[in-house]
């Protein structure tokens, strides 16, 4: 089974082309569309999204993940097999696999360089999604062993981010993305929140030089409309939201990846 | 076969997560995406949409329908098996199943409460689509009998709506939704229209205290550009539209569910 | 395998309805969504898009292509089997098949008129996608021979367009569509470009009475941000783009299908 994740949009025929390529190589391949309408050209934001959905797929799933950075430059196409779950990630080595590599461990990592497994076109430029990544996923789904695709690599490129941590009386972590409703996702596990805070605590949120106050709650309706709350999102991380409002706009956030601390307000 | 219908949008990874959960439970499950980009948090509008597409699916289809109301409150997760067509609807009991229940009849109705068939996560909050509804659909597709999921219920919650009816010399019904082109859908069957009106009749449309005149026709091109018409939409219901125009804006509609009457203008 | 291509949008239940119809006729049919969010009511633009993705699908693929013109009028529903690749195209005969017919050759062409293979509904109007095209694709996928669907036709309707050509010292062709980034697609094969031009050449683009200067390059990053370039797009055609900009807006294009010439600037 191939779980397909790109930032190409649902209004592009590129996704369709890649499905055609996969089915040409392996007529029996099963392709599951996961998401194609996500923040474009942003491997870091999408690394967090990949991390949030990957774990709900069955053992042995092949994840075909094509999110490239906007700017050029050379990054290797890779296949990463994980220790836990026996997952295969077919992706550019640009940080996109950072969190799933840390979560599931790297069992084997190869560069995709064996042209035998490329989709050959006599075009002068290359559409890597079609010509390299999709064929690799298709051949993997046919049972071609990972070693066949190219030389083993030592390690993937990791992007830097603030690891979530409990620091005496506060939590630190990072804002990782927001959704279309303006609900703001952090990388801080909900259990860390429950270690330091209890329901209805008033929390000081610090983001760079800005401070906000929010309630530590379970669900939106625990606060009044318009009030800020911190609560566990369904992925198991703390989310900052406004009941019937837009927290991202209220907090005037414009860049993901900023550090955040959460501390109980003493009263 | 699982027909998948939500209001989560095509820009959310939640749909992908649920596919992962389903395939984890039943690797052989076939998932058909029906629609994920529909009016959010509106069980009533989506009840009409569900009713319009369900009947074209084969007998025995499992419909996984996750449209919750915006506000909280407790509604039970249910599985409804229908008398006709042998359909299974896995959905929140919030009115979403009103029209398909009336159309196909309820053969058996259970609350989903047997935690054996939940997708267990140690999260403090619950994403019902992932944790309850998707697993139920997946286990049904594996052949688990409906009785296994929980206790039988007497009846589902129905929302109220104006049943379409022929009243002497006029028709009454409700405006149920509009599409992105501003074509306005009613719940009045086309046959009722043909009982009272004939092609090219001038019709008085009354919606609350507003009145409009339209022609009773077959297709858009039966009227001039800019003219209002009433005609049978492909689902078999009367639609109000403007040839090359936007009827919803012209009629200044802003809420679905308002009553409508249609009467021939005497001349 | 049925590759499904419409202009109905991802926010419409019509795509879902057609999947239901197909699965009702052939439970084993495999449906691959290619694209549903493309320029509406435009068979010509979509003929180019169809041509760009079709070739990457395996031999024997059934392409279900429902793009109708905005205005009414009668066009026949057809099935076209191609000489090369053994493809089947199920589509309205409105020019949509122009380029794939020229690329792969017509082996057999029939009008879909045998009502035995319609999806019968007692509705007074017809939704051809649901009632004629989808059933035809489904029955084809079950092995019904093309001759069964209706009488053979002589030829399809072709739309007119400027065939790409090398004219002494310049190239001529047509602007065929643009994407959401404003990258402008031509129908001129990249090889024609390489015949007349070399990397870094300055090129005069003429579109009607407007002239622009661009560099002939391989990739976006070969020019500075804001500069215009011409380069081979992944489909193998020349694309006009601005590095980190919107070429369509810069060139004030508003209609596809205009002629274009490319000539090296003498210096």
Describe this structure in words.
Three copies of one chain form a homotrimer. Helices cover 21% and strands 30% of the residues of chain A. The first copy, chain A, is of the alpha+beta class and 267 residues long. Chain A folds into two domains: 2-149, S-adenosyl-l-methionine hydroxide adenosyltransferase, N-terminal (Rossmann fold, 3-Layer(aba) Sandwich), CATH 3.40.50.10790; 165-264, Beta Barrel (Elongation Factor Tu (Ef-tu), domain 3). In chain A, the strands form two sheets. Chain A has a seven-stranded mixed beta barrel. Chain A has a six-stranded mixed beta sheet with strand order 2-1-3-5-4-6. In chain A, helix 1 runs parallel beside helix 4 and helix 2 (43-54) runs parallel beside helix 3 (98-104). The A-C interface holds A 9-17, 19-21, 23-24, 27, 31, 33, 71-72, 119, 121-127, 130 and C 1, 3, 5, 10, 32-38, 49, 52-54, 56-58, 61, 179-180, 190, 194, 218-221, 231-236.
Class derived from helix and strand content of chain A: alpha+beta
- By DSSP, the count of extended strands of chain A is 14
**Low-pLDDT windows of residues of chain A:** none
What's the name of the CATH homologous superfamily of the largest domain in chain A? S-adenosyl-l-methionine hydroxide adenosyltransferase, N-terminal
Note the gap between the termini of chain A.
54 Å
Oligomeric description of these chains:
homotrimer
Using the coordinates above, name the CATH class of the largest domain in chain A.
Alpha Beta
What is the CATH architecture annotation of the largest domain in chain A? 3-Layer(aba) Sandwich
Q: What proportion strand of chain A?
A: 25-35%
Average the pLDDT over all residues of chain A and give the rounded result: 94
Count of the separate structural domains of chain A = 2
Q: What is the ordering of alpha helices and beta strands of chain A?
A: EHEHEEEHEHEEEHEEEEHE
CATH fold-level topology of the largest domain in chain A: Rossmann fold
Largest sheet of chain A: 7 strands, mixed, barrel
Helix content of chain A: 10-25%
Largest interchain contact: A-C, 28 and 33 residues
Separate helix tally of chain A: 6
């Amino acid at each position: 089974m191939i779980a397909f994740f790109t930032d190409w949009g649902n209004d592009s025929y590129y996704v369709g082309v890649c499905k055609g390529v996969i089915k040409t190589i392996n007529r029996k391949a099963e392709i599951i569309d996961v998401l194609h309408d996500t923040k474009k050209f942003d491997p870091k934001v999408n690394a967090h999204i990949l991390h949030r959905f990957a774990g709900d797929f069955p053992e042995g799933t092949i994840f075909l993940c094509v999110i490239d950075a906007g700017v050029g430059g050379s990054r290797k196409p890779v296949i990463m097999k994980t220790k836990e779950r026996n997952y295969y990630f077919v992706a550019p080595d640009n940080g996109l696999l950072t969190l799933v590599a840390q979560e599931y461990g790297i069992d084997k990592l190869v560069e995709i360089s064996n042209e035998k497994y490329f989709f050959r076109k006599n075009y002068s430029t290359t559409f890597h999604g079609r010509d390299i990544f999709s064929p690799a996923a298709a051949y993997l789904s046919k049972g071609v062993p990972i070693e066949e695709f190219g030389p083993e690599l030592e390690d993937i490129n990791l992007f830097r981010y603030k690891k979530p941590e409990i620091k005496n009386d506060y939590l630190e972590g990072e804002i990782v993305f927001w959704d279309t409703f303006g609900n703001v996702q952090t990388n801080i596990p909900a259990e860390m929140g429950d270690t330091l805070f209890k329901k209805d605590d008033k929390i000081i949120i610090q983001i760079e030089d800005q401070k906000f106050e929010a309630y530590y709650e379970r669900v939106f309706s625990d606060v009044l409309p318009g009030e800020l709350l911190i609560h566990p999102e369904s992925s198991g991380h703390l989310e900052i939201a406004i009941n019937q409002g837009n927290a991202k706009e209220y907090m005037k956030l414009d860049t993901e990846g900023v550090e955040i601390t959460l501390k109980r307000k003493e009263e």
